[in-house]
Amino acid sequence: MRTSIIAAICTPLNDNDSLHIEGLAAHLDDQWRHGFAGVLVGGTMGLMQLLDEETYRDLVRHAARLAKGRGEIMVGAGDASLVRTLRRIEYVEQFDVDAIVVLPPFFHPLGQADLIRYYRHLADSSRKPLYLYDLPQVTKTKLELETVLQLTRHPNIRGIKSSGEWTWTRHLMDRVGDRFRVIPAQPELVDLLIRCGVRDNLDGIFSVVPDLTARLIGAAELGEWEQAAARQRDLTELLNLVRFQYPLFPACSALLNARGVAGRVFPAPMEPLPPQIVEQLLAEPPIRRIMQPTPVEG
């Protein structure tokens, strides 16, 4: 079975924070050209919660149009309350998408019993398959194992994007087997997960460097483990750069611009990197190894 890479894409924006449609088209095309199985639109990498409502709706509408027939289309719709999330789901399900992915509510965290009621209500209301999204490092709410196991019994809750600790994700996979789809987000462990037979992988960094990701996957699928490990080291070094040495979204924006994806992938008041810092970023050893920059105007 081939590895299924799902890229959580960024949201290219114009200077007024409206959707940059040409940038979105180029960004999506970059994923399909590198053989990815699907995309997550409006996830945390796409900063859905920070977008103007009109921009979010434009993102969903245009992404569904541009991605139709090319692979799996998942859309993030989680918001801060039940009613706000329901309104977003009602909008998304008008389009030809495969699944709706929902974070736990943020700002006012819910207890586990409330989370079960929350997700069951959403799953009852949605005409599209619903996926849980466990991201405790951002939402500050952890979906506990027993909570997820109870939710797996709902016929319209089809899976989970798990961005927490790998040991927790592995324990969940062992408990549910093939009856419930568990998609890990472990970009530092891609080569090892493939070696262990884990075939679904989903993360935002894949969308920024799809060529490196494709080379990593290709080497691992051929059993070329030394080459896969080298590509994995490059990916991990890149992650460390954009997490700890440069501001994440302005850095990703500069990298995408260098790939030919126009627009900026962050709203105001965040600012782009100054030109000298972009030059410094693109000169970093792991960046030089994995990219062939063709700068475009952001």
Question: What's a quick, concise take on this entry?
Answer:
The chain contains 14 helices and eight strands.
CATH class: Alpha Beta
Overall tally of domains:
1
Helix percent reads 40-55%
Reading the helices and strands in chain order gives EHEHEHEHEHHEHEHEHHHHHH
Largest sheet, if any? 8 strands, parallel
Q: What name goes with the CATH superfamily?
A: Aldolase class I
Average pLDDT reading: 95
Structural class: alpha/beta
Characterise this structure.
- Helix 3 runs parallel beside helix 4.
- The protein has helices at 21-33, 53-67, 82-92, 112-125, 136-139, 145-151, 166-176, 190-195, 205-208, 210-221, 225-245, 248-258, 275-282, 285-290; strands at 4-8, 38-41, 72-76, 99-102, 130-134, 157-162, 181-184, 200-203.
- It has one domain: Alpha-Beta Barrel (TIM Barrel).
- It has an 8-stranded parallel beta sheet.
- Mean pLDDT is 95; it is low at 293-298.
- Strand 2, helix 2 and strand 3 (72-76) form a beta-alpha-beta unit.
- It is globular.
- The N and C termini lie far apart (39 Å).
- The protein has 14 helices and 8 strands.
- With 298 residues, the chain is of the alpha/beta class.
- Helix content is 48%, strand content 12%.
